[in-house]
Hints:
Elements: E1 2-8, H1 14-22, E2 26-30, H2 32-36, E3 43-44, E4 46-49, H3 61-67, H4 69-77, E5 81-84, E6 102-111, E7 114-115, E8 134-143, E9 146-150, E10 156-163, E11 166-171, H5 179-185, E12 187-188, E13 192-193
Amino acid sequence: MTTKAAVLWDQPGTFNRYVDECCGVCCEHLTQHLIAAPFFRGRYVAMVIPTGFANQAYSRLLPGLRAASNRIERFVENGGRLLVFGAADERPGAYDWLPFEVEYRFEFGQRSLGFADGEERYAPILDGYDLAAVETDGFFPTHDAEVVAGTPGGQAVILRKAVGDGEILVTSTHEYPSAKFMGTFCTAERETLF
Length: 194
């Protein structure tokens, strides 16, 4: 088994350190320029895109994600895993680089969450948090994916989509995922070429 992730962002930050030092996951930092560069090759179990990727006040990642959308899809089809957090931006189309439809509504607040039947294996993402009051930055009113977790009122907060041999998790939880979850999500029998 191997444990390795890439965190995509403009520059290394606290999230990279969290994944590397607290979760025990070998973590590589990738920029929007690197993922869109045709010469770049890397091997990872998972790729992680932190909260705020579509908000230009926080990041310039979105154009790189759009430019690399085919490579991202191929990475997941070949067995890679992708964890995407909230866009933190009100403009539509923030997730148009994913290989399925996802629309997001930016609406920060605490939400009570429950996991869908059969999706409890993803519950460790929120280990240590009070499920009655989880900090979130929005929800997904329109999507072509399974709802992993949502509110009692039907707002989808964590989505899952199987793509080829891999999977994509999209979440608007505004908390660091647990170290236990990250260790599991970023571990597999092999790395996948990006």
